[in-house]
Specification:
The chain is mostly beta strands and 130 residues long. Helices cover 12% and strands 39% of the residues. The protein is elongated.
Length: 130
């Protein structure tokens, strides 16, 4: 009978696997979202602000906004906040999103104001095209 208990004890220890493997993802969570760094001259969409909030560019320039709104990780939980780049003149705007990027080209001179559709006047920006 002692042999059976000893065998069960050894089998139980072997089944445990020896601990947590930090290189394996936690399959109980969804795929983590990724913050996107804007290219040089781009604008970062962070929680509650556009950075930089004002930008001056030449006619014909494309500007990219990149979302950097996720905090945490797949192992401990992740929070991502949705924002948009919504132009006040009704021109092409981004969808409401919590990751990725949006690019807009400016073909004419002028001042183009925009805001986040979630945060309104609390989260605004301006592109001046010369």
């Amino acid at each position: 009978m002692k042999g059976v208990f000893a065998l069960l004890a050894v089998a139980s220890l072997c089944a445990c696997g020896g601990g947590y493997n930090s290189t394996s993802p936690n399959t109980n969570n969804s795929t983590p979202k990724v913050n996107t760094a804007p290219p040089a001259g781009g604008i970062s969409v962070t929680n509650n602000q556009f950075s930089p909030a004002t930008k001056t560019v030449a006619v014909g320039t494309s500007v990219q906004w990149a979302w950097n709104t996720c905090t945490g990780d797949a192992y401990n939980g992740q929070t991502c906040v949705s924002h948009s780049v919504t132009f006040d003149d009704g021109s092409q705007s981004s969808p409401l999103q919590d990751e990725g990027s949006f690019t807009k080209s400016f073909a004419t001179a002028g001042t183009f104001t925009y805001h986040c559709s979630v945060h309104g006047a609390a989260m605004t920006g301006t592109i001046t095209v010369q």
